[in-house]
């Protein structure tokens, strides 16, 4: 049987802080450069980040495609360019593959999980295993590229070049959307699990891939934000020269103040993708916190209003639908007018769950929530302030009410509405999160 690192606890991510090189002496760091490796910057990726269609069915077939000791996968690139240093990573392992592993096959079976997330515990193979185990291990890596030195450590998020040679830098004056698309087109995002070197000449990085929602077999979900990634347990090995720079990524744990965690990073993740589960199933995605009376999820690109009384997060779309329902009833009675905030009574103004079906008021009434006054609130124990807003809720009446007689062409009317919690009826127009 192949050597397996299974134990009561999964192995640490090539625990660089706990282990040195294979001879037992701890090594603090490793420095490499494009000159030392004899390869241009970002010349090789030992393995490529596979797309959704390639990942599907990995655990059900013994002939799955694996990441290879090859070059960066780009159109027209020679995939055997890295054969001299090549390692094959197979992740996950199918039952049939596990049965066919022989003691002399050169396989090395590992068990690990990223960031202490035991729910993502996974087995993967590294081939040739004997060669991989002989590599020295390091706590960190320094990559020198001309006048710039980049230092990377275990559990750093990094950008991995998708193309050889790397494409042109981001032009100046682009929009946020153009910058995000440039990032997706040119880089993959990964979490560093460990550093290994071959005779101090070639440095390898073991990593875990993060995926954009559209890369997954089930595709992007309605709650995924524009800058949202998913942490996966897809293990891989790349050459250090393929890493471009650190990536600005944070983990969002969906606590009370969603801005605090997201202010400091360009990208974020909150959900995991588990390759051990049938990969087209939504069960492969970790569960998220549910909000609002609709029991839906939080899309950080859309406003959500947290009630200071009961703590419920209210989706803006659900609040607008509830407003429109109230206004529609009064419109049919011919009594639609401004709602009076002074008549607010949270004990008896609970709003029913808004309907997701047909909207009979479409083309007649239109609800809207607009930002009005802006103010900033300092976040305790940080150097950051969160921008908050007062909000105005309105209904625009586009046609005459049933009991109105129009004298001449009807002019749309705007009515002020109360912005109330959908569970307890308390006012919400103080602060969104």
TrEMBL record:
Residues 150-284 form the BAH domain. Residues 336-347 have a biased composition (Basic and acidic residues). It comes from the Eukaryota. Signal peptide: none annotated. CDD domains: BAH. GO terms for molecular function: chromatin binding. InterPro entries: BAH_dom (IPR001025), BAH_sf (IPR043151), Znf_FYVE_PHD (IPR011011). PROSITE patterns: BAH. Residues 1-78, 336-363 are annotated as: Disordered. Residues 14-44 have a biased composition (Polar residues). This is BAH domain-containing protein.
């Amino acid at each position: 049987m192949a050597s397996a690192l299974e134990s009561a606890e999964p192995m640490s991510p090539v625990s660089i802080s706990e282990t040195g090189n294979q001879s037992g002496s701890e090594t603090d760091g490793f420095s490499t450069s494009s000159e030392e490796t004899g390869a241009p910057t970002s010349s090789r990726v030992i393995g490529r980040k596979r797309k959704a269609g390639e990942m599907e069915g990995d655990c059900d077939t013994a002939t799955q495609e694996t990441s290879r000791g090859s070059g960066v996968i780009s159109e027209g690139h020679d995939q055997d360019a890295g054969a001299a240093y090549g390692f094959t990573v197979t992740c996950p392992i199918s039952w049939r593959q596990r049965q066919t592993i022989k003691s002399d096959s050169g396989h090395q079976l590992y068990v690990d999980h990223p960031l202490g997330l035991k729910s993502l515990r996974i087995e993967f193979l590294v081939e040739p295993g004997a060669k991989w185990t002989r590599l020295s291990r390091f706590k960190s890596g320094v990559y020198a590229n001309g006048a710039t030195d980049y230092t990377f450590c275990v559990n750093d998020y990094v950008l991995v070049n998708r193309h050889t040679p790397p494409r042109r830098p981001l032009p100046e004056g682009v929009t946020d959307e153009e910058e995000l698309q440039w990032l997706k087109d040119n880089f993959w995002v990964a979490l560093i699990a460990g550093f290994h070197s071959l005779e101090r000449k070639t440095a390898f990085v073991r990593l875990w891939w993060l995926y954009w929602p559209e890369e997954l077999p089930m595709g992007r979900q309605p709650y995924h934000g524009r800058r949202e990634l998913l942490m996966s347990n897809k293990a891989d090995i790349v050459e250090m020269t393929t890493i471009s720079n650190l990536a600005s990524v944070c983990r969002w744990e969906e606590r009370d103040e969603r801005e605090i965690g997201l202010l400091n990073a360009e990208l974020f993740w909150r959900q995991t993708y588990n390759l051990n589960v049938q990969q087209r199933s939504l069960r492969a995605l970790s569960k998220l916190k549910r909000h609002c009376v609709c029991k839906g999820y939080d899309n950080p690109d859309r406003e959500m209003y947290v009630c200071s009384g009961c703590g419920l997060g209210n989706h803006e779309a659900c609040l607008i639908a509830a407003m429109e329902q109230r206004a529609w009833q009064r419109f049919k009675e011919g009594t639609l007018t401004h709602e009076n905030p002074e008549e607010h009574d949270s004990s008896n103004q609970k709003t029913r769950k808004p309907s997701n079906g047909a909207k009979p008021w479409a083309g007649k009434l239109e609800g809207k929530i607009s930002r009005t006054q802006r103010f900033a609130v300092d976040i305790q124990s940080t150097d950051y302030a969160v921008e908050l807003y007062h909000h105005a809720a309105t209904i625009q009446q586009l046609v005459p009410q049933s009991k109105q007689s129009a004298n001449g062409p009807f002019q749309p009317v705007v009515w002020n509405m109360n912005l109330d919690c959908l569970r307890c009826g308390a006012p919400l127009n103080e602060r969104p999160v």
